[in-house]
Amino acid sequence: YKAGVNYFDSAEFYGFGQADRNLGAAIKEFGCDRKDLVIAVKIFRGGAGPNSYDMSRKHIIEGTLKSLKNMGLDYCDLVFSHRQSYTINLEETCRAFNWLIKKGYAKYWCTSMWENEAITEAIKLCEELGLCPPIADQCEYNCLRREHVEKDYRRLFERFGYGTTVWSPLCGGLLSGKYNDGNIEGGARYDNPFVKSLLWDQYMG
Fold this sequence. Notes:
Helix content: 25-40%
CATH topology of the largest domain: TIM Barrel
Number of helices: 8
Shape: globular
Strand order of the largest sheet: 1-2-3-4-5-6
Number of strands: 6
CATH class of the largest domain: Alpha Beta
Strand content: 15-25%
Order of helices and strands: EHEHEHEHEHHEHH
């Protein structure tokens, strides 16, 4: 914040609420002026319970309000659908995010890692129903993973002026240079066989 950074991103999934609490504590500790901040909340998985997962109206609303409570904030600037749902009716999801905006709990809603076709459908549906449409996607984008953004999402950018934020710009640390010698320290994320199989084996194997 003191270095000029004012966009802060959290998610109910990160430590199942601990990241939200840490962010809220930092905002208070540094005496940040709320109007100068852009706070993003991501909702999809908030726990192990049957109603703490997916993009139902119940979970979207309750999950967002819980994140705000954990941060000690009245509203967030952006609320993201952290992942696309393949089980919940899209209209239910759109109406839930619209409710949060109309009630003042969020300024805008966004998607994260949604398929191009699903985003297009959501925008069109919101336009037809008079709802607030999603405005941006948080997508994985780095030197090793470019196609999804540069090919698939390009049509969204050109057609709708869709925005974006980025996650994993260093591809999980592979582009940081710390693994150039091929060694993985004990306790590092790639010391986990599952995590290693996702990226390391593809790019470093």
